[in-house]
Amino acid sequence: MTSSYLVSPHWLEKHLQDDNLIVLDCRKAKPGTTPPRPLEEEYRDAHIPGAVYFDVDKLSDQTTPLPHMLAEDAYFAREAGKLGIRNDQTIVAYDDGDFFSAPRIWWMLRHYGAKDVRVLDGGINAWRAEDRPLEQGEVSRPPQTFRAAFDRSQVKSVKEVSELSQSGEAQIVDARAAGRFRGEVPEPRPGLHSGHIPNSLNVPFTLLSADGRLKKPDALKQTFIDQGVDLEKPVVASCGSGVTAAALVFALATLGVDAKLYDGAWTEWGDLNAQWPVEKG
């Protein structure tokens, strides 16, 4: 392992029976996936023993058309508590093993006030590859009290990102695939321009891992440097809808870099009806 934010399959299996541990199945389909993945069915068919299914959309803002936006504290606290989550638990989130969705849950929970949130390195794919136990059915835990107090300083608004794009006071780093960033392929969501925020950099989230595991610190640091990121300067992460931006924030956190996140991301900035400038190439 390369960070206290990561746990290995071996560590997790050893600690599955810990009273203060909760495991969250955070698998999520990538935008444009066809046919749609039956994620709850996949969870019921096979999940890590004791894992609770965590649907990021159900715990996000239900009042905006933008996907996965942060909910008000009271709503998140209520829904997290229903799942059996408390602030003082050790919380382990896992996805398929590509760092697509678990870092978003890591980021959400930490900044709503959870004290100890970690990501399973390699996700359920690594767990399966090591022939570790799985179980079927749904897991229901007793309701708990989650006390949410989100740290709004961790989030940048579209206006703030626009100002940073012009001033250069922080680096805007986009986690989308290079073709989308350069405007060479259409966005998987309808109604969006192709391209990127002016003066932003591109670090596709797929570059952060190798063989399903987060790269070692030196290799991870070199990945950011190779993509033009100065790790000594402020970073604001973006992506298509705020999910893989959290993968950048997570990876940077393992290197000791505190990055902020633009939650509206390209779905907000690149809206065909919006007036924000778009750059290609």
Automatic annotation (TrEMBL):
Rhodanese domain location: 17-136, 166-274
Keywords assigned by UniProt? Cytoplasm, Pyruvate, Repeat, Transferase
Q: Which GO terms describe its cellular component?
A: cytoplasm
Q: Does the keyword Metal-binding apply?
A: no
- Name the domain of life: Bacteria
Question: Do the record's keywords include Transmembrane helix?
Answer: no
Q: Spell out the reaction equation it catalyses.
A: 2-oxo-3-sulfanylpropanoate + [thioredoxin]-dithiol = [thioredoxin]-disulfide + hydrogen sulfide + pyruvate + H(+)
Localization per record = Cytoplasm
> What InterPro entries does the record point to?
Rhodanese-like_dom, Rhodanese-like_dom_sf, Thiosulphate_STrfase_CS, TST/MPST-like
Q: Name one Pfam family in it.
A: Rhodanese
The cross-references to PANTHER family, in alphabetical order and at most eight, read: SULFURTRANSFERASE, THIOSULFATE SULFERTANSFERASE
Q: What is this protein called?
A: Sulfurtransferase
Origin organism is: Chimaeribacter arupi
